[in-house]
Amino acid sequence: MDEIKKLTILHSNDMHGDFLPSDKDGVETGGLSRLSGYINQTRQERKNVLYMIAGDMFKGSIIDSEFRGISTIDMVSNLRPDVATIGNHEVDYGIGHLLFLEKCAKFPIVNANLFVTMNNQRLFTPYVNLSIDGMRILVIGILTSEVLDATKLDKPVGTYVDVKEAAREVGIICDNYRTVNTDMTVLLTHIGIENDVKLAELLNPSWGVDMIIGGHSHTFMEKPEIVNNVPIVQAGTGTGVIGRIEVQYDTVARKIVDFQYRLVPVNENTAPKDEAMESLITNYRSQTEVKYKRVVTRWARKLTHPCREQETEMGNLYADAMQWESSFDIMLMGSGSIRKKEMGPVIEYKDMLENTPYDDCIWMLTVTGEQWRRMIKHIMRDDAWKGETEFYQFSKGVKIVYNRTTRELLELKWQGQEVTDDMLLKIALQNFHYESFDKFLGVPLEEVKKNMRPRVVATSLNNIVEEFFMTHEGLDARVEGRITLID
After folding, report:
1. 111-148 b/e with 16+ CB inside 10 Å = b?
2. What torsion, rounded to 10 degrees, do the Cα atoms 170, 215, 5, 248 define?
3. Residue 345, pLDDT above cutoff 80
4. What is the pLDDT of residues 111-166, one digit of tens each?
């Protein structure tokens, strides 16, 4: 038996329905057929290859939403992953539907900390043992706390939301299922890089965790972050890159003796197309294009949404569209609700739906000026700049000047007037944000309800967006200082 064995671990995360290739500086980049081609090519070139997915396969594509994730599970199954964990967007179609999709998957899906709260029963298998060339790899799945926000209607479902409790759960799994035959232990997480670091700090070395492969924060990592002797890696978002770990394992000393990591671009120069996957995508695409190919409107130019933690062109356009002809003063459009970094000038129906895939109702509430000031300060807190929390795009009339260094709200105006404590403002936000009002906005919802009983003013965000787009040709928007950040 060889003393040193080599293992290649490929990994993806946060694909979000990124099934089709895009043009990047004249090079065809990403798409499932090239991703599949790269994985297949690596499996042919290397003896021991594993492929893992760290959550959020769903949402972001018409092909995904039209078939409610069944198409995604079908196509991802053809990538032949050895294991996947679930992310917060896997529950977007409901817990019941997710359990159905798990039955459709031709690969194991693991999660250790999503429970039925009434009897403390796990919803998923918490781990899987992968055997390859005589090596045995224990893979444990851990989910982000945000799943609670997305499953508020599923009252019997809960998760350990605290990183300390998640670490404790890892210890339980390792103590019970990590045996003398286990060569490596991998945490496949969807909690974001900041929480991966916190989790690694809490791991007891005796549990034997060798690496964390993460997702959720969309972090492109050119090299691993080593915490408590545990390397942490993550492969950004989409299908344009794939993480690649090269491990050398000493079977006599029973330990990893070398760990090399790189982020590999997936494009026409690095990956051939998988024709079988291409055919499968074409089949799903042809079924959706008939319905979704029509042109809704033409903008004046291409608009961008490059970063959620700042004012953006598309953010202003969408916030203004929601406030148009409305009964409220200010729209708080969740930055994360806008999924594309750029779009236009021609807007097809599928573009519109893919850009705002989380179609929910709109709530209107009345807040005092003092509450509004507290909300803005909470939105601008330190966590906002880490990609760890919600951020908002504001409709016209709002002016915010915030100093990130001193943590001071220097200016807060509405329609050119300084916001006073006794001022009353009617604000609106999507149902997801209404359901998490206390957490996302830092003011108790019960306190706000005393001003006015909240009410639903629109049943569908996309109904408003579509009507606005269809009745407004040549739309344009600029970054105009609604949010000014000073460092």
Report:
1. bbbbbeeeeeeebbebbbebeeeebbbbbbbbbbbbbb
2. -100
3. yes
4. 988 777 667 778 899 999 999 999 999 999 998 665 555 555 455 565 545 788 88
253 Cβ contact partners less than 8 Å away, ≥ 6 residues apart: none
Q: Report which residue type is found at 139.
A: V
Does residue 271 carry a pLDDT above 60? yes
| Structure-token match 């997936």, residue found | 266
Cα–Cα dist 70/74, whole Å: 6
Contact (Cβ atoms closer than 8 angstroms) between residue 36 and residue 78? yes
How distant is the alpha carbon of residue 390 from its chain centre? 12
Say what the pTM is: 0.76
Decide: 218 and 237 in contact? Cβ < 8 Å: yes
Report cis status (omega within 30 of 0) of the bond before 345.
yes
**31-72: per-residue pLDDT in tens?**
999 999 999 999 999 999 999 999 999 987 889 988 999 999
The Cα–Cα gap between 398 and 413 comes to 6
DSSP code at position 274 = -
Residue written as token pair 């206390």: 438
Hey, how many other C-beta atoms are within 10 angstroms of the C-beta on 168? 14
Q: What is the CATH number of domain 4-285?
A: 3.60.21.10
Q: Where are the beta strands (DSSP E) in 285-423?
A: 295-298, 303-304, 330-334, 342-343, 346-348, 362-368, 392-394, 398-403, 408-414, 417-418
CA pair distance 356, 339, nearest whole angstrom: 6
> What's the CATH superfamily of 294-486?
5'-Nucleotidase, C-terminal domain (3.90.780.10)
Domain ranges of the chain: 4-285, 294-486
Share in percent of the chain as helix, strand, coil (round to 5): 30, 30, 40
Percent of the chain past pLDDT 90, that is, above it, reads 77
Check: CB of residue 199 under 8 Å from CB of residue 169.
Answer: no
Calculate the CA 254 to chain-centre distance. 36
Close Cβ partners of 138 (under 8 Å, ≥ 6 residues apart): 127, 128, 129, 173, 174, 177, 178, 182, 184, 185, 186
Task: Give the C-alpha separation, 322 to 465, whole Å.
Answer: 7
**How far apart are the two ends of the chain, measured CA to CA in Å?**
58
